[in-house]
Structure formats: structure tokens, C-alpha cells
Design brief:
This protein has 370 residues and is mainly alpha-helical. The chain folds into 2 domains: 36 residues, no CATH class; 311 residues, Ribonucleotide Reductase, subunit A. The protein is built from 17 helices and 3 strands. The protein has a 3-stranded antiparallel β-sheet, with no helix packed on it. The radius of gyration is 23 Å and the shape is globular. Bound molecules: fe (ii) ion (2 copies). One fe (ii) ion (FE2) binds next to α8.
């Protein structure tokens, strides 16, 4: 049987057929073995920008695991104090918050698949996305183990919850690579702040092992933010006005991802607001405005004035970044300013991004500028 398989494989050289199709794809087939060859057009600026990103990524990667310096690599089973986690009970409300963040991290298959397709023509962005996915994978796993090992959830409960989440698919909230890179810079910052607040809540409840886990994950999120922030600064070099317009639009319409995919979202948001882990002002003051400043703007007012300036002629890079990737086989949202692709689908869906008042009433999207 094995020798037949080997013979089959070796005969591929002789038996492969090439059938050019009307859409330009080439099909290579030998019996049941069938591959397609799809051409990916890589424009000169995509090559240049992609390789610039590649250098930035490897510098970031090497810093991340420099054995002599600030090595931030961690190992799930070694670096989290699991004995402590097992001994320390977590209050139900706090467990619910951990579960909510676990749910967001669980959409990694969609984030990874769509992100890789989105940036396929830019080498450095695909490299960073693969590393990013590895790091995010550890976040979901760690949160799952915190819930299970603290006795907050059974393994079966986590399996059922995860399976239920997997029945829905996340899609990108913005249609262009530049908008998604800006969104990532904001979102990683907000995630870092959420985890830091949740860590404080856990520490206050005496769950120090779980608090340690949240701190460890939050540190990764801070690095992710720093990387995307640096990319956006480079995008500003290429097209300051157009990038500023996108920053302003994303800041005004920002929502955390996958909220509309989660069960009982209203209750989850209420608990987070009550515990000051998440909120309207918190998003604005701790994620949106600091990130705008980190991009190099003095404040949101300066961003707005740059965004409304007359665009300078560009070398074509920015135009390509602003355009929808019509030639890519990916699913895209159709967000425009002040609109969410899923607006109105679920009650309370806007709560996480728009936040709530201290009384807990849902509010709409929060403008970055005051
Ligand atoms: Fe994460
Ligand atoms: Fe992250």
C-alpha cells in the first residue's frame, strides 16, 4: 500500500495537467491530487513597504526573545503559578469577565485567516501576523486554564462555550489594510488596559495567581500595540492627510471586536462597567487618546486639523492602501463613518465600544475628540 502511494507521488511529474482558466487561475491535477496556482499581484510600493515592515518585524521579534535583554517569551505551563491559581477561588462576576475576554481571544482563527489574506502581498505584515497569532493563541489557552483550574468552569462547560462561539464567524470591521492596521493599534491598547484592570480586580479579590496570568497576557498586548503604532507612524510618512483621516474615522467608530458574536453581551458589559474594567470614558482616556498621541499628534484636535488639511500629492502608495482589496478573495465589512457593519443587529452590541455611564446605560459610539 505504501509503495503504491509512493509510486503515485512520483508519477505526478508525468501525469499533471495544466488547465488555464478564464479567471487566470491554473489548475494542476493528477487524479485526486489537485492544486491551483493563483497569481498575487505585488505592486512596487507593496514590495517596498512589505520589506520595510519585514525589517521592523524582525527587530521587534528579536527584541521579544533576546536571551540577554528584555526577553518577554513565556511558557504557559511554566510561567503561570498554577498551584496558586488552583487554591484561589474567583468570584462569579470576575470569572464572567475572564470568560468574556476568553471569548474574544477565541476568534483567533477568523482574525488570523482574514488578516493573513488581507496583507498577503506585503511580506513583513504576513510574518508579523503569524507571530501575532502564536502569541494570541496562548492568551485564549491561558484564560481557559485559569477558569478551569480555579474551579470557576468545568472542562465540559468551556468546551460547550467554545463550540458555541465557533458557530459564528468574525469579519473585518474596516475594508482597507490601512484602516485595519490603525484599528489594531487602538484595539491592542484597549485590550492591554482591560487586562490590567482585570488584574487589579483579581488581586483585590485575593486571586493572585490569576492576576499574575492577566499581567503576563497584558504585557503581550502592550507589545502588540507598540508594533502596530510604529506601523501607523510609517503610514503617516507615506500619506499624512489620508492616514489622519483614517485614524479619525476609526477613533470615532471604534468598537472592541466580536461583541455581537457573544451570548449575553449586555450582562457581560454591565459587569465590566461595574468593576471599572471597561467603560466609555475608559476607552477614550486610556486607549483612543493615548494612541492618537503615540501616533505623533499633540491631541485629537491636532489630528482633526491634519485630517481636514488639503491632501499632498503622493507617490501612489496611499491610494493603494486606501482602496478596498477588490482583487483579494476575502470577506470584508462595509463600515463607514458612524456606522458599524452590524449596527442594530443585537441590543447592547455597542456597549463595549461606546461604553456606558456609571449607571450602566448603553451608549452609542464615542468620538475621540472632546
Ligand atoms: Fe490577546
Ligand atoms: Fe494582542
Amino acid at each position: 500500500m505504501i509503495s503504491e502511494d509512493v509510486r503515485g507521488a512520483s508519477s505526478a511529474d508525468r501525469g499533471v495537467e495544466a488547465e488555464p482558466r478564464s479567471d487566470g487561475r491554473v489548475v494542476l491535477q493528477n487524479g485526486a491530487f489537485r492544486e491551483e496556482r493563483i497569481e498575487i499581484p505585488i505592486l512596487p510600493w507593496e514590495e517596498e513597504f512589505g520589506w520595510r515592515m519585514e525589517e521592523a518585524f524582525w527587530a521587534y521579534f528579536n527584541r521579544s526573545e533576546d536571551p540577554e535583554g528584555g526577553n518577554r517569551r513565556w511558557i504557559i505551563e511554566r510561567d503561570i503559578p498554577w498551584d496558586q491559581v488552583t487554591r484561589e477561588a474567583i468570584p462569579p462576576d470576575v470569572a464572567l469577565m475572564i470568560e468574556s475576554f476568553y471569548a474574544v481571544e477565541s476568534y483567533l482563527p477568523d482574525f488570523a485567516e482574514q488578516g493573513l489574506n488581507h496583507y498577503r502581498s506585503m511580506v513583513g505584515l504576513t510574518s508579523s501576523y503569524i507571530n501575532w497569532s502564536y502569541e494570541e493563541l496562548k492568551h485564549g489557552r491561558t484564560l481557559q486554564l485559569v477558569l478551569e483550574r480555579s474551579g470557576s468552569r468545568t472542562r465540559q462547560q468551556m468546551r460547550d462555550f467554545r463550540t458555541d462561539l465557533a458557530r459564528r464567524k468574525w469579519t473585518m470591521p474596516y475594508p482597507t489594510p490601512r484602516q485595519m492596521l490603525i484599528y489594531a493599534a487602538f484595539q491592542e491598547k484597549e485590550t492591554n488596559r482591560n487586562y490590567e484592570h482585570l488584574r487589579d480586580v483579581l488581586a483585590g479579590e485575593g486571586a493572585l495567581g490569576a492576576a499574575h496570568a492577566l499581567r503576563t497576557i497584558g504585557r503581550d498586548e502592550a507589545f502588540h500595540h507598540a508594533y502596530y503604532k510604529d506601523i501607523v507612524k510609517i503610514l503617516l510618512e507615506y500619506d499624512e492627510v489620508g492616514t489622519a483621516q483614517d485614524i479619525l474615522m476609526v477613533a470615532k467608530t471604534f468598537r472592541m471586536p466580536a461583541q455581537h458574536l457573544m451570548p449575553n453581551m449586555e450582562e457581560r458589559v454591565r459587569v465590566m462597567v461595574r468593576n471599572k474594567v471597561f467603560g466609555k470614558r475608559q476607552v477614550r482616556d486610556e486607549a483612543i487618546i493615548p494612541t492618537i498621541k503615540a501616533f505623533g499628534f499633540r491631541d485629537p484636535e491636532e489630528l482633526e486639523s491634519v485630517a481636514t488639511a488639503r491632501p499632498m500629492p503622493t507617490n501612489g502608495h496611499a491610494t493603494r492602501l486606501q482602496r478596498s482589496e477588490v482583487d483579494r478573495p476575502i470577506e470584508l465589512g462595509s463600515a463607514s463613518e458612524g456606522d458599524s457593519p452590524n449596527e442594530g443587529e443585537l441590543p447592547g452590541e455597542g456597549d463595549l465600544s461606546g461604553g456606558e455611564t456609571s449607571q450602566g446605560e448603553p451608549a452609542g459610539p464615542e468620538p475621540a475628540r472632546r
